[in-house]
Every structure is written in C-alpha cells, then in structure tokens.
User: Fold this.
Amino acid sequence: MKPVFEYTKGMTRASAHYCPGCTHGIAHRIIMEVLDEMGMLGKAIGVAPIGCSVMAHQYMNVDMCEAAHGRAPAVASGIRRVHPDKIVFTYQGDGDLASIGTAEIVHAAVRGEKITTFFINNGIYGMTGGQMAPTTLIGQKSTTSQDGRSKEANGMPLKMSEMLSTIDGAVYIERVALDSPAHVRAAKKAVRKAFEIQQKGLGFTLIEFLSTCPTNWGMTPVKALEWVREKVMPYYPLGVMREPKEDEKE
Assistant:
C-alpha cells in the first residue's frame, strides 16, 4: 500500500521551540520538502541570523551557518561565491531583514547575488520581546508602540518586496502566505521556482512569507490566521513582484 504521507528527510525529528500557532514550522517544512524533492539536501547551505529562527539549524537537515543580526545576506554571498555549485539560502525575520539588515539585503540584490532569501514577515520583533518592526501595521500595538503604530511618529510600514523588485539584480520576488492549505501549496511552488532560478544562476531571488506571531500579537492561533487574512494581506498583497525576463527563463 502506498503511504499517504511521509516525513521529509529535510527535517530532523527535534521538537521545535516555536510558540503554538507560529507558522515558522510550516515555512521550514516546505523549504526542506522542496530541497528533498529536488534531490538537493546534500548540496544546500542555509544561513540563519539572530531571531526566532536562530535555532533553525536544529530542524533543517542541511548544512547551516549562523550570522550576526542582519548579516545573513553577506554571509550567504560569500558562501555562494566560494561554492558556486551549492544551493545557498538565508532565512530571516522582518526585524532582522527589514531593520538592522536593510542595507545587507538591498546590496545583495543590487549585486545580483545568486542566493535565495526566505523573508518571514510577521510584523513584529518576535524573539526579543514584541517590539515594533519596520513592517508593523498602522494601529498595530507592540511593546514599543503601546497605542499602536502611527504614520506621524513612525512612518508607513515598509514593503520590502515591492522595494527590492525595483532592483535589476533581483530576478524573482514573490509574496506568499501561510494562513491556509491553498496558500501553503502556492508558497511551496514559489520556493521551488526560486531554487530553480538560483540553479540557473540568473540572480537574486526572495520569497516573502506572511506569517503569524500569536504570542506577541496577543491572539489565539486561530485569530492570528484571521488577522493575516483580514489585516495583513490588504496592505501586503500576495503575488509576484518581479520575475525573470523571457530571454532569461531558459
């Protein structure tokens, strides 16, 4: 009898430290599933910086490297240049990528580094105490915006995918979500496409995952998923922001 479900070799059997309802685990799973299905587990190298994903190396069954806060793109760039035959990716949160690491990710895209970045956007600093992030929505409360983020005091939430899509070195940028089975399936397709583009050596690729943080949002896991659909997606719409030109796809 053919099994309905098999545990991917891309994930270890370790118990995750993530809070109940956090969608980091879903992102981990689909990334590792794709590498497993592509037969690339032995050729992949991941880079995780400071943040909730600092322990990702315990769960992802590939070679992993730690980077200082925000510096994963620089570390990954070095790894990929030294090992051009490898699949190299970074796994970063929004506090890391869109704040302290903004310059790193922008210039990795400008250089067209042949790496793939997985950007987990849950609109808040998760590990360090629920502070406001560059992606926190207007009106959303955090430990550093007790009355909610305001445009006057903090500016508008930063749309990283739209910004990076204006850079020529970035060849594929897509925003996906992890709130439903259908969106998870679409996210997995985007992950595969990003890795395939990296294999072709076309340039920088990034997949943004709209994710949840029930603990720091002060919500139940179910309510957090509803929040993504009702509040986050209208401001951060799903879709492809940039893809390879026709003459680059083959």
